[in-house]
Design goal:
2 domains, Rossmann fold, 48% helix, alpha/beta, 10 strands, 4-stranded parallel beta sheet, single chain, 311 residues
Length: 311
């Protein structure tokens, strides 16, 4: 009899624990389901949304950290998650070719329609961005202009308020804070790059024309706008001449691009090599460190100051 009582007692505990587990899982699912889902396709847009709505929406980061934005292709599972999203914000200007032909069931924002885009100069137009076939005369790296980031922040804020009006005050306040941060960045760049000995940087590809145009320096690129393009021997020779003539001390490459050619050039002309982050995406290591747009742009500024020999 005692054995039966013990069995019933244990079964009672198991049933209670099981009921508690099911209850907590149900509540968790219900909590998640009450949040609007917002999908974003580039790191700069992801950074805006995470600062404006850190808790009130569920954010789907379309481009996984550590993946090159230029060659990314979404999985069927990811495309299915886009269909469940209440809002999709993508960069535009040809940066996401996989969007062509995809019919969104949710509200959609093509951010390139709300910012000021730069046209490519003649010297770069033949080095087209590999994914801007229908807009090959436009530079898609607009997030490197703080004025464009402010415009994007305004657009995202309005969209979030439309989607989730009960949190209007939170979005408005977070928008003000984020724009203030961008204004501080702009001020830091203006002051730090105001008086520099040099006026040109060398990179593996020209993703920095917005920065260069705004702060008065030039970019000499190994492969124009396309990071995948293989430079010719002539292009390499011309770049090496620029390095020697301008007495360049440091040349830059990106985390998602092979540094083989740049390192070979640096070895031949005896200069240093460093990374400059164009923020199409961030690395897994940067994500693990919790680095955002502000931190990385300040890191870029420190490197630009050194390369341009600013006072």
């Amino acid at each position: 009899m005692k054995d039966f009582k013990r069995v019933f007692f244990i079964l009672g505990i198991v049933v209670a624990l099981l009921a508690f587990y099911i209850s907590t899982q149900t509540k968790s699912v219900q909590t998640k389901s009450t949040k609007p889902i917002v999908a974003v396709s580039s790191f700069a847009l992801y950074d805006i949304v995470t600062h404006l709505a850190p808790k009130s929406v569920e954010i789907v980061n379309i481009l996984p950290f550590g993946v090159d934005a230029h060659s990314f292709e979404p999985t069927p599972k990811l495309m299915a998650s886009l269909e469940r999203s209440s809002l999709v914000v993508y960069s535009g200007a040809g940066l996401e070719p996989w969007i062509d032909g995809f019919v969104f069931k949710s509200d959609t924002i093509n951010m390139s329609q709300f910012v000021t885009l730069k046209k490519l100069s003649g010297s770069h137009s033949h080095h087209q961005h590999s994914h801007t076939k229908h807009q090959s005369n436009l530079d898609p790296h607009y997030w490197l202009d703080f004025e464009n980031m402010k415009k994007a922040t305004e657009v995202v804020s309005q969209a979030l308020i439309k989607l989730d009006a009960k949190n209007r005050e939170i979005y408005e306040q977070n928008k003000k804070n984020y724009i203030k941060m961008l204004e501080n960045l702009d001020s830091s760049y203006t002051q730090s790059l105001n008086s520099c000995k040099k006026d040109v940087i060398i990179t593996n590809h020209n993703a920095f024309s917005y920065l260069a145009s705004r702060y008065g320096f030039e970019v000499e690129a190994l492969s124009g706008l396309s990071p995948e393009a293989q430079p010719s021997a002539k292009q390499i020779a011309i770049l090496m001449e620029h390095i020697k003539e301008d007495d360049i001390k440091t040349i830059f490459f990106e985390s998602f691009v092979s540094d083989k050619v740049i390192n070979a050039i640096a070895k031949d002309v005896k200069v240093g090599v460093d990374t400059l982050q164009p923020l199409g995406n961030i690395t897994k290591n940067e994500a693990q460190k919790g680095m955002g747009y502000e931190q990385i742009m300040r890191q870029n500024l420190t490197k630009l100051q050194k390369a341009l020999e600013c006072h």
